[in-house]
Structure formats: C-alpha cells, structure tokens
Amino acid sequence: MKQRLLGLALVLLPAAMIFTTGCARPHWRHPVVVQPVPVVVAPTPVTEDKSPRETQPETVVVVIRNPNGSKTPVQLTRVGHNQWKGPRGEVYYQIPSEEQLRPAYGLR
Q1: 36, 37, 24, 31: which is closest to 8 by C-alpha?
Q2: I need a labelling partner for 70 at 20 to 30 A (CA). Which of 4, 24, 37, 90 fits?
C-alpha cells in the first residue's frame, strides 16, 4: 500500500522529472526528483558602429599660407551636421578651403 501511494504521488508530480538509480528496473524506494530549472536568455546588447569614415572630428585646423611665407592656423569647431564655426563666430556649411579663409584670416 505504501509503495502504491508513493508511485501515485510520483505520477501526480507534473513538473518534476524522475530519475532512478540507473538499473534496468526503476527502484521506487529510492527515486531522485529533480525540479526543472528555468532558462533565462538575455538579449544581445546593441552597439553603434562608428566607423572612421562616418565620424568627423569636433575641431579642424586649416592652415593658411601667407605671401611672406608664414602660416596662420585657423581652428574650426563643429556646431552641427556639416556646420563649422570659425574663431570669429562665422558659420560655414562645409569645411572651408584655404582660399575661402585667406581674406578673413590671412596677412594682407
């Protein structure tokens, strides 16, 4: 009677996995009950791909060659997408060339 109740109890455990001692016939006197372990899968973190072609520096220095042989560096700071601000506050919509900056920053 006791074995029959134990067998009935083991059949009524729906979430349990029952392993026996490894013999050809299961030994109901010494069962091992193992509860299933929940598996949690974490999503892969998403990272931004910043390749060197897409990333532009925050400051750029354009060097102006003066007629006397000296050089004048002009530092431009990025203020937006393809917008650059000069040392005097002027805004350019692309990085200006040496010829564009010469009238304002070159020697006369």
Answers
A1: 31
A2: 90
- How do the domains of the chain map onto residue ranges? 2-34, 59-105
% of the chain surpassing 70 pLDDT: 63
Question: Phi, psi at residue 49, to the nearest 5°?
Answer: -95, 110
pLDDT digits (tens, 9 = 90+) for 24-70: 555 566 667 777 888 878 777 877 766 555 566 799 999 999 999 99
Can you tell me the distance from the alpha carbon of 87 to that of 83, in angstroms, rounded to the nearest whole number? Answer: 14
